Amino acid sequence: MSDTICFFGATGGTTNASLTLTLTSQSHRAIALVRNPDKLRQQLISQQKVDESLIDKKLTIVQGNALDVEDVKRALLANIVAGKDDRLPFMLKSGLGGAPALQFDIYHPLHIITLNNPILCESAAKTLVCALSELYAEQPGLAQNKPAVTFVSTTGVSRGAEDVPLAMRFLYHQLLAVPHADKRKMEDTFRDNMLEDAPVFKSVTGIRPTLLSGAGIIAEGKGLETVRAGTECKPETGYTISRADVGSWVFENVIRTQGKGRWIGEMVSLTS
Fold first, then answer.
1. How far is residue 241's CA from residue 211's CA, in Å, rounded to a whole number?
2. Contact 96, 121 (CB under 8 A)
3. Is residue 167 part of a domain?
């Protein structure tokens, strides 16, 4: 089995932390699709135990846009083209998200927080599904080893039990309604694909952290012993969690388990 993980949104805090731990592990390699490779390299070097030689040895950086189908296909095929593998990455990890901005909508006066691209997460999810569909049509053998996908969403978009503390519900359901609508549509794209006769993924796992803090520097996290995890049916509720701890939890409980274990296929709420 391929031990390669393909990362989208690798310059974001949670995904950068997961990527760092992937590179410093003994058994995994990585591909990252990013618009700015130099920015990614500098972020990784700021993490402990990562240097240029490790990056060059274990990471394939593909410059491109996660909203462009051809760029996503290039990333997915990068190790095959380079002769490093004969199949797609066994896992895809997406941590994409838009930059927040303020707005005033006369029809929704409480929806004051928006994004620089309010459909970024949904569009990226659809692009990934389209890219895989095209690859399977072009090279049917690739569908014999479909990748699992893990993506970062948020609490406050659950279809199950309420996963936001009472004191935070106004913030989540009113002020953050616009960015959360994008996260919900992203989730729908991934989850609905698994209901199709021929899904493009082996499995779909969603990560729903509470409000994120910190920059994703692993050394600044509180530690996995502080993290509480729940499911959509039985969520863990809380107020904040560091980006570093989210990225570390994903590595330990999803990536390191080779896409197996109790959390695979779940919508996992995370908080400290």
1. 6
2. yes
3. no
The helix/strand/coil state of 230 is strand
Cβ neighbours of residue 119 under 8 Å, at least 6 residues apart?
182, 185
CB-based contact 98:182 (threshold 8 Å): yes
Residue 137 falls inside a structural domain: yes
Considering only 15-19, 78-82, 96-100, 107-111, which range has the smallest mean pLDDT?
A: 107-111
- Kindly state whether residue 175 falls inside one of the protein's structural domains: no
C-alpha R_g of the chain? 18
For residue 260, the model assigns a pLDDT of 81
Amino acid at 269: S
Is 72 domain-assigned?
yes
Question: What is the count of structural domains for the chain?
Answer: 1
CB 36 within 8 A of CB 58: no
pLDDT digits (tens, 9 = 90+) for 148-191: 999 999 999 998 899 999 998 888 877 777 778 999 999 999 99
Instruction: Give the position of tokens 């901005």.
Output: 101
Q: Quote the CA–CA distance of 205 and 228 in Å, as a whole number.
A: 17
Q: Tell me, what CATH number does 20's domain have? A: 3.40.50.720
Is the pTM here over 0.70, yes or no?
yes
Residue 218: HSE in the Cβ half-sphere, 13 Å Cα cutoff: 23
Q: Structure tokens of 87?
A: 């199949």
Three-state DSSP state, 6: strand
Query: Residue 95 sits in which domain range?
Result: 4-99+119-156+181-271
The alpha carbon dihedral of 208, 113, 18, 245 has a sign of: negative
* Alpha helices in 194-258, H assignment, sequence order: 243-250
Tell me the backbone φ, ψ of residue 162, rounded to 5 degrees.
Answer: -60, 130
Q: Letter for the amino acid at 26?
A: Q
Two tokens, residue 132? 């895989």
Closest CA to 230 of 210, 251, 214, 245: 210
